[in-house]
Structure formats: structure tokens, C-alpha cells
Amino acid sequence: MALLVDRVLARRERDGRTLRAAVLSARLVEGGTWHERVVFREATADAQRICLALGGRLELLPAPAEKLRLAVERFGPPASAGPALLRDGATQRRDRLREAVGQVRAVAGAEGALRVLEIDPGSRVAERRAVLTPFEL
Questions:
Q1: pLDDT value of residue 84
Q2: Could you tell me if 77 and 92 lie in one domain?
Q3: Residue 82 banded pLDDT, cuts 50, 70, 90
Q4: 109: region left, alpha or beta (phi > 0 left; psi from -120 to 50 alpha)
Q5: CATH classification at residue 42
Q6: Does an H or E element contain 8, and which?
Q7: Domain interval for residue 63
Q8: Which of 42, 23, 35, 43 is nearest to 62 (CA)?
Q9: Could you give the CA distance from residue 110 to residue 135 in angstroms, rounded to a whole number?
Q10: Most buried residue, 50, 70, 127, 131, by most Cβ within 10 Å?
Q11: What whole-number percentage of the chain has pLDDT above 70?
């Protein structure tokens, strides 16, 4: 598993970005295939954390594997050197909310995080009062 993760992290296409979701798949010795989608709680580029998250999924293999494959399904934001020393509460909340929205979209798709936008609050028709739009920060 560590070799697969190292290969994924070393690929040029990653371009310094973190991993948000990955697919672990296997060709089974007895024939057939198996795949498991893994969405990380936080976008990460740390090999140990990725191996830890994927290692538990390997135990779900129904039979011995002939070949393992790891593919990135969705990338996250670029990996930073570390958190800023001084950050106010509003910035931290906004970053946490952005991370949560990204995680929801990785699991449920683009329509997973929506917000209600009031259009005509005084209208008698309920459909004209508000609409759902994509959540953006």
C-alpha cells in the first residue's frame, strides 16, 4: 500500500495538490474485480494518513488480490507548508466551512451543498419566494 501511495503522490499530474477522494481497486485471484471509494475527512498529501485510511479498506477484500490499483478521484487544494501563526476566528471558520463543503461535494456530488436564496419574500406563490443555488464562499 505504501508503494502505491508513494507513486500517486510522486506523479506530475498532482502538481502539489492534496487528495480529497481516491478509489482503491483490485483484480481478484479467483476472477472478478473489487473497488472501494475512499473520501478523506480532510484533503491531505501525507502518505502515512493516506495509508492509514486505505489500510482499513483493504481488510474488506472478499478474496486474495492478484493486482492492486490506486487512483485519485478528486484533488483538494494545494498543500501548504503549515497553518498561519496568527489567524482570526472568522478566517478559521471560513476555512473549516470551505473544507466541509468540499468534503460534502466529494461524497454527494456538485449538488451536495446548496443554499437558499430569497428572491421574492412577499410573493403568494411559495416557489417564487426562494430558490436553491450552489453554496459558494
A1: 59
A2: no
A3: low
A4: left
A5: 3.30.1490.100
A6: helix 2-10
A7: 2-82
A8: 35
A9: 10
A10: 50
A11: 94
3 or 86, which is more confident: 3
CB neighbourhood size of 11 (10 A): 9
Cell of 63: 478474496
Query: Same domain, yes or no, for 134 and 77?
Result: no
Residue 85 has pLDDT above 70, yes or no: no
Name the E strands within the chain: 17-28, 33-44, 65-78, 114-118, 130-134
- Are residues 94 and 109 both part of a single domain? yes
pTM score, two decimals?
Answer: 0.62
Residue 65 to residue 85: CA distance in whole angstroms: 46
pLDDT of residue 86 exceeding 90, the answer is no
Q: In the numeric block, which cell numbers belong to residue 115?
A: 443554499
Domain boundary residue among 65, 82, 99? Answer: 82
Strand partners, 35: 25
The total number of structural domains that make up the chain: 2
User: With contact defined as beta carbons under 8 Å apart, do 14 and 8 qualify?
Assistant: yes
